[in-house]
Predict the structure.
Amino acid sequence: MKPIEPRRPSDPRPGNKPYYIKEACPQCGVPLVLVDKAENPRTPEDKIWHDEWMCPDCRDGVYMDWPPGKH
Protein backbone atom coordinates (compact mmCIF):
# COMPACT_ATOMS: atom_id res chain seq x y z
CA MET A 1 0.00 0.00 0.00
CA LYS A 2 1.37 3.40 -1.02
CA PRO A 3 1.76 5.96 1.81
CA ILE A 4 -0.77 8.78 1.91
CA GLU A 5 0.67 11.92 0.35
CA PRO A 6 0.82 14.83 2.81
CA ARG A 7 -1.36 17.74 1.66
CA ARG A 8 -0.58 20.35 4.32
CA PRO A 9 2.51 21.40 6.31
CA SER A 10 0.80 20.08 9.45
CA ASP A 11 0.24 16.60 7.99
CA PRO A 12 2.60 14.02 9.56
CA ARG A 13 4.93 12.35 7.11
CA PRO A 14 4.80 8.56 6.68
CA GLY A 15 7.37 6.90 8.92
CA ASN A 16 8.26 10.29 10.43
CA LYS A 17 10.62 10.89 7.50
CA PRO A 18 10.57 13.62 4.85
CA TYR A 19 8.22 12.68 2.02
CA TYR A 20 9.28 14.95 -0.86
CA ILE A 21 12.96 15.53 -0.08
CA LYS A 22 15.86 13.21 0.72
CA GLU A 23 15.92 11.86 4.25
CA ALA A 24 19.57 12.71 4.89
CA CYS A 25 21.52 15.94 5.15
CA PRO A 26 23.13 16.78 1.80
CA GLN A 27 26.26 17.98 3.63
CA CYS A 28 27.02 15.15 6.09
CA GLY A 29 24.51 12.37 5.43
CA VAL A 30 22.93 12.38 8.92
CA PRO A 31 19.15 11.73 8.90
CA LEU A 32 17.10 14.93 9.03
CA VAL A 33 14.85 15.59 12.03
CA LEU A 34 11.79 17.77 12.49
CA VAL A 35 12.78 21.32 13.45
CA ASP A 36 10.11 21.57 16.15
CA LYS A 37 11.25 18.31 17.79
CA ALA A 38 14.93 19.27 17.56
CA GLU A 39 14.32 22.63 19.22
CA ASN A 40 11.83 21.32 21.81
CA PRO A 41 11.34 17.54 22.09
CA ARG A 42 8.17 18.12 24.14
CA THR A 43 6.38 20.00 21.33
CA PRO A 44 2.80 18.66 21.14
CA GLU A 45 2.01 16.79 17.93
CA ASP A 46 -0.69 19.29 16.94
CA LYS A 47 1.87 22.13 17.07
CA ILE A 48 4.47 20.52 14.77
CA TRP A 49 5.11 21.75 11.25
CA HIS A 50 5.88 18.46 9.50
CA ASP A 51 7.34 20.19 6.46
CA GLU A 52 10.31 21.76 8.34
CA TRP A 53 13.38 19.55 8.72
CA MET A 54 16.97 20.15 9.79
CA CYS A 55 20.26 18.34 10.25
CA PRO A 56 20.84 17.79 13.98
CA ASP A 57 24.62 17.83 13.42
CA CYS A 58 25.21 20.67 10.91
CA ARG A 59 22.27 22.84 12.03
CA ASP A 60 22.86 24.66 8.74
CA GLY A 61 19.27 25.70 8.08
CA VAL A 62 15.81 24.39 7.41
CA TYR A 63 14.95 21.96 4.64
CA MET A 64 11.36 22.33 3.45
CA ASP A 65 9.55 19.09 2.61
CA TRP A 66 7.40 20.46 -0.19
CA PRO A 67 6.21 18.84 -3.40
CA PRO A 68 8.21 19.55 -6.55
CA GLY A 69 7.21 22.88 -8.09
CA LYS A 70 6.05 24.37 -4.77
CA HIS A 71 9.43 25.89 -3.83
